[in-house]
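Researcher: I need the complex structure. Ligand is phosphoenolpyruvate. Inputs:
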Amino acid sequence: MPDRGESESRKLLRRLRDSLALPGQGQDRLDRITHLIADSMQTEVCSIYLFRDADTLELCATEGLNKAAVHKTRIKLGEGLVGRVARTATPVNTGNAPAEKGFRFMPETGEEIYSSFLGVPIQRVGEKLGVLVVQSKEARQYSEDEVYALEVVAMVLAEMTELGAFSGPTGESLGTLHKQPITFRGATGQEGAAEGRVWLHEPRVVVTNPVADDPERETERLRAAVAQLRVSIDDLMSAASLDKEQRQVLDAYRMFANSRGWLRRMEEDIALGLSAEAAVEKEQSTTRARLEQVEDTYLRDRLHDLDDLSNRLLRILTGQGQDTGAAMPDDPVLVARNIGPGELLEYGRKLRGVVLEEGSVGSHAAVVARALAIPLVIHAERITSEALNGDAILVDGDQGIAHLRPEDTVAAAFRDKIAMQTEAQKRYADLRDLPATAACGTTVSLHMNAGLMADLPSLEGSGAEGVGLFRTELQFLVRSQMPKRDELARLYARVMDAAGGRRVAFRTLDIGSDKVLPYMKPADEPNPAMGWRAIRVGLDKPGVLRMQLQALIRAAQGRPLTVMFPFVAQGSEFAEARAFLLKEIHRERSLGHPLPERIEVGAMLETPSLAYAPRSFFETVDFLSVGGNDLKQFFFAADRENERVRRRYDTLNTGYLRFLSGVVARCAETGTALSYCGEDAGRPVEALALAAMGFRMLSMRPASIGPVKHLLRRVRLDDVRAVIDGARADAAASVRGALTSWLATVA
Ligand code: PEP
Ligand code: MG
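Model: Output:
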């Protein structure tokens, strides 16, 4: 272990800790600390700058600079040397500060006479809290050991801030930590607005003892915890059902857990006076700071791995598990880095909203949130570092925004918005039993999408005529093992019971792509969205498909049955799948089981190729349902899960509408029923355009039925068609502009 001025540093930490243990207000403590540090490091100046808001630092305490500047001097992120430390989260160490690029002269502090400058970030697990600075007149570069020692002190300050050591007399924090309102701008996962209090899926580990007296004991604790960590990784590695990717992640974990560098750095931190926990956190902070600067996705993933590993180690050291004993608020908004569909379902409808740092619109979690009608904001970067259990939070799913600890005015405006939406829903409820008949007399049949038993009550409330898409894979995704045929048959029967005679289009298992069953080994594919998925799996390995078809036939118990096959790319695939169904019917008949009174067999059009299938396909298929979510991604070659490209192409793009017109025409020629069940069918303007293009059945999330019906009933579809044709004639890329301007004048 290097002898890095250990005793001096440990002495300083001990003095710091003792000083913090003394009674006093936050400001007194900060003042004492700056004095202690300056004294111990033999520098003329020591100052603490803390964040006031996301990009402003404030001088909060100083030894050596003009005291009158305290709470007056403010620095923007990136401005001057202090701002540079804050922005880059890395130290600045110079013997000639005025000659440094970006040096900013602050006359009110008397700074110009100090030549040397050392500033280190005060950060806690990647969360920037401020900057700690020492300065002296003597033009000297601080040694590596001094930089290191100051970083350790900054780490302790960060921990103390977290524990509220610097709170003022009325409880306000001198730091801005976890107190100020913050707005997170992410993306929409599921529309809707909610107000509630934060419930962290993975609560933060709290370190209460950053400073330790006995480095040997701390080193031992650290080594024992790392040993335990290694064993737990080995246990995970020996699990049989690991796919290649999981194995890679665990390999990376094992590599880090065995990395001498990682352990050595933490042991050095301990030697300087930190406790084992604080040492882990210090290295974790460094990792997080690096994470922010790395663009390369592979490297980012590895740094994420290291971050996760640090969390595991912290949980071992502190004994703090997932369950902190805290009671869940009665209006919980779940905040998490990411969450799986099963976990989300376990929380169920008690959640008011969900805010994720990662996630994607097409993910299972989003599908489940949609099924549960819970507003979901994704890509709310860094919210898990900011939010504390119980914090007030507003979730604006429409805008993809979350307001954490909102100002009263924001909360009031938000409540108005919720009230307006409730009011609008009430108005829509009045339309519930009226048909979606446009002013020109054309009626469009509105159905809802579902996938869980929990969705079915919406059938009554929304006024949907039936279930246009029942995503059966959700039942498979939320289980830890493959469901049995009889279990499925009971479930499908309950769905049909709940539908009370209304049509339910059961889509057979659509797995693959992003929908990976936990108990099925996923295929290792370079591009799963275009890979072995949906009907392709069903035809190649028909065991599960056949079991599902049997379950559906048995569930019908003589009632009519509607089945549709997902992701059919050519007519022959449909013919093959249909043959499986006919075979199962034959088998059921020979077993003497009752057969469905009537069977409708359809296909989802989700790849452009199917639009050009032979006429015989259109003649055999009972109905076609356009799965616009997938179709669009293949039409525009833009991944539906990639936020960068997802919004680039408009559904109302004239080319896409022209393509859909072609599908409408082919279905009209052959008398094939046609519907649209992608998410766009639930957006009023899009729904209007689809109806004007000739779609007579739309399937959408239940909450969209009211707004879509409301708009449809106010316009003539031939007028809408004329506007679309006009925009096309003008060679517009999208008809959205023309359509929304026209709607503003008529609806
Ligand atoms: C679609 O692709 O539009 C669709 C409805 O299916 P899913 O979103 O489940 O892929
Ligand atoms: Mg699809």
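Model: Summary of the prediction. Confidence is low (pLDDT under 50) at residues 1-5.
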